[in-house]
Amino acid sequence: MIQINLLPVREWRRKEAVHQEISIFVLSLVLMATIFLAVWITVQGKLSSERRELITLEKEREKLSHVDSNIKSINKRQREIENKFRAIEKLQQGRTVTVKILDKVVSSLPLDRLWLTNLSLKGNDLELAGVALDNHTVALFMQRLEASLIRSSVHLKNTHRKPVQGHDLTEFGLQVKVKVP
Q1: What's the CA gap between 178 and 80, in Å, rounded?
Q2: What is the 3-state secondary structure (H, E, C) of 21-74?
Q3: CA-closest candidate to residue 114, choices 128, 130, 132
Q4: Is 101 exposed, middle or buried (0-12, 13-18, 19+ CB in 10 A)?
């Protein structure tokens, strides 16, 4: 016997499949909306916490801005003080160098035979002028100067005879290049 099914099973299965696809589509839309909403809420939460932190940091920066200006003024004063110390050290070195040079000149003088009338020190140039008993005494003084002043050169500018109080003396001029260490 042949059985004929008069129930619309195929149609019913088709409708059921369509309903199932529609529900899957709607559920996936709801799921996606939920995911997007969760991501949006998370991002908004992070954004608001970052904004609060930014506001807090700006307030703290305003509180500490006077510290920054104090640091700048202190650094400026420190540089000024360091410059003053360097200038003082340079002056101290120059003072001792001048004293040392004058000491060497005085120790090089042949006693009771040569007298200085002029001494001028400008930078590394030392100019000497004076009178001596003779040319030999001037040469001796030049040799002693060259030996006592470290890294220097002594040049005779001029010599000539000059009568002083009835004595015939030699007037001279020297130029000394002193290389100060």
Answers
A1: 32
A2: HHHHHHHHHHHHHHHHHHHHHHHHHHHHHHHHHHHHHHHHHHHHHHHHHHHHHH
A3: 132
A4: buried
CB 117 within 8 A of CB 131: yes
**DSSP letter assigned to residue 180:** -
Residue spans of the domains in the chain: they are: 10-108, 111-178
Q: Which amino acid is at 91?
A: L
Rounded-to-integer distance, Cα 69 and Cα 75, Å: 10
CATH topology of domain 111-178: Gyrase A; domain 2 (3.30.1360)
Residue indicated by tokens 């070195």: 93
Q: CA 33, CA 167: separation in Å to the nearest integer? A: 124
How far apart CA 120 and CA 105 sit, in angstroms, is: 12
Sheet containing strand 167-178, edge to edge, reads 114-122, 125-132, 167-178, 152-164
Q: Give me the amino acid identity at 101.
A: I
pLDDT under 70: residue ranges of the chain: 1, 5-7, 150-151, 180-181
